[in-house]
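To: structure subgroup
Subject: Chain for Friday's discussion

All,

I'm putting the inputs and outputs inline so they're searchable in the archive.
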Amino acid sequence: MIRLTAVVLLTLLPASAALGHHGVASLGVAGLEGPGAPIETANSATLPGRRFLASLKLDYASFEKLTQERDDETDFNAYWMYGVGYGATSYLSAYLLIPFTTKRAEDNSYNTSGFTDLSLMTALGWKYDGGFRLVPESESLDDMEDPHFTLYGGMTLPTGNENLRAKDGEIDPGMSLGFGAPSYSAGLTATKQVAGRFTFCGEASWIGFSEHEYADSTKVRFGGEFRLNAASAARVLLRPASKLRCDVNLEANYLQLGRDEVAGVGEQATGGRILYGVPGLRLFMGSSSVGLGVKVPVWKSLNEEKEQQGAEGKESYRLIFTFSTLI
């Protein structure tokens, strides 16, 4: 058995989740040695004990247009996520995530941009090695091939401005920079490294939103989100002397969106189910990591598809970029 002390070098953020449907973050991690890290799907690594992480993620969504004219259809949304993580122990990590969002209409009739609701998250990690146990301070390369798991949860704080008004004075909650009330999330991940080179990850997660009364007295509850992700990563380049590694990733991301509700009534043109495909690359350099992927809907069943321009499932593509480094 190889008894090298593997050093976890890099960390955080797919996203997946990233960023979620309404700008809610998801968690993930990576390492130079050991398991790989997908772009959107969270893997099961935790931060090294007593180390900080800084991260940045961009999720740029370009949407299909229903008409050829330059009108008020959604052109693109750009979700930036700035993050700071801390490994309280080798098995318990905490994160503060600071989102910045830009939403632009095709004719620039109503654009919004600014910081949105802060997000707090924590992740508990454990493994199976003849029995379940918390992730230890150090693991050999062989130990890293054991199945690893994380349970994570978090909430957003209503720090963004949810009462932005368009030129006509109306509030469009979908264009605002906050929800006005906390949202809550929870997820479970499983990761297994095989033959040293390949990593397989699974993730199930949920996000729930609270009802909020806006300044115009409208009560809105955004639809809940359920995600089921699967990912594989293959190490195609490893240069230990120069601390360089490159992985090729392929992911399938399933998203089920509930209907938004206005005054307790389901809103037309919201909700549905989407399956995304995400090919991507992740490059590790020293204690830093850069990930790049393209997320495209490969199947969808939206509730009122012809009316849901600018919604999930109607993207032409989503470009995902991540950067993270241990401090």
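Points worth raising on Friday:
The first strand starts at residue 10 and ends at 11.
Residues 1-29 have pLDDT under 50 and may be disordered.

D.
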